[in-house]
Amino acid sequence: MSGDDFRSGFVTMVGRPNVGKSSLVNAICGSKVSIVSDKPQTTRHRVRGVYNRPDAQLVFVDTPGLHKAVTALGERVNATALESLGEADDVDVVCLVLDATTPFGSGDRWVAERVELSRAVVVVNKTDRASREQVLAMLGAAAELAAESYFPVSAKARRGLDELVDHLVARAPFGPPMFPADAVRDVAEDVWVAELVREQLLAVTRDELPYSIATRVSEWEGNRVTVEIVVERESQKGMVIGKQGAVLKQVGERARAQLPAGTYLDLRVKVDKDWQRRPDRVERLGY
Ligand code: GDP
Predict the structure, then answer these.
(1) Is 0.85 surpassed by the pTM of this model?
(2) How many other C-beta atoms are found inside a 10 Å radius of the C-beta of residue 237?
(3) Of 3.40.640.10, 3.40.50.1970, 3.40.50.300, 3.30.1360.40, which CATH number belongs to 7-185?
């Protein structure tokens, strides 16, 4: 398919915590998280999911600015001191997600004030659990935002998603896919979390560590995730841990910032001298 009839765009879901942003991305892209095997240089955003169909590709990304702001808000930092989102500028479509089961509140307003509403798609989620009156009340409140469009949906019951996706595709610009289909693979969430830790580790140590460092989730229970960092030599262990655990602490903080609120991340360092030479292990580590 040539560039003339293919649409390809970046979409971000914004909204206060718990409205169902991740559930929506998962429902649209499939329950597995898509990661791009070559680190995308095209965007400053983390790819949360890629939706592919024969005539279009939608790349769902995080809006780090908003995430930071919402976290800071949670920590009661003076919200007015924070700059407006800005980071959403290079995204084609911004979806403002609202929760139909709770009235439009200050958290929703706070986020709404930080997006360009005339271009935003309002998504009223959780219609499966809300009464008709609740859905109508939320749509009424949302109408006052004067957004570009409104979609009542349910990520859980997969209701209204086709209409939403069709609209997002129609809003995406014409152009070739951002990522070739074979560069995108669907991975289980544990592989994604392990990859997230590895990425932050390499970022914090600024490439002092060899890329052979591996990570894997060894336990996942409820909101407690244990990630093992496997190094080849005892000397690398110190680099990973840092002075008084400083490196590990920073890696944990950075990774946690991208995980759902309340996630408890336990990082452990293990020395495994020859994991690279043992295919069974490489396989188990997800490479
Ligand atoms: P996020 O913080 O905005 O990413 O929200 P999540 O996707 O983590 O969802 C928050 C909670 O709402 C989870 O417990 C979800 O299972 C639930 N949830 C998300 N979408 C729906 C929906 O359409 N219907 C119902 N009933 N629950 C939902």
Answers:
(1) no
(2) 14
(3) 3.40.50.300
